[in-house]
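Section 3.1: Structural characterization of target chains.
Under the original work plan, the team committed to producing a structural model for every single-chain target entering the pipeline before any wet-lab resources were allocated. The record below documents one such target. The sequence was received from the expression subgroup and is listed exactly as submitted; it comprises 112 residues.
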Amino acid sequence: MFFGRIAMGLYVHTYLDKQKEDFIMSDARIQQFSEKLKALSHPQRLSIVEGLMQQPSNVTSIQQHLGIPQPSVSAHLAKLKNAGIIQGQRQGQEISYSLVDEDTRNLLNLMH
């Protein structure tokens, strides 16, 4: 009985240590996630990403939807792209942007 409790205690301790390791993010992962949150912190960028969750879009359609100047849309897209949240794919003369970051998709799904 006594040894059973020790074995159970060691198992629980080992299990909790493993859970703690799984829970704690590395410094690099924290930095990366922080950069993504910064990129999402602007209302227009958040709106862009929400739209890209539904379907890929080009600068013109994003501009028409948001009603802001094209240079502003391009600047927002550059920040989102640099943060690794979106990706652009050239299709002829246009670039179609889409959401590629699953962390961001999961975060926004939690908000709905």
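The chain has a mean pLDDT of 84.
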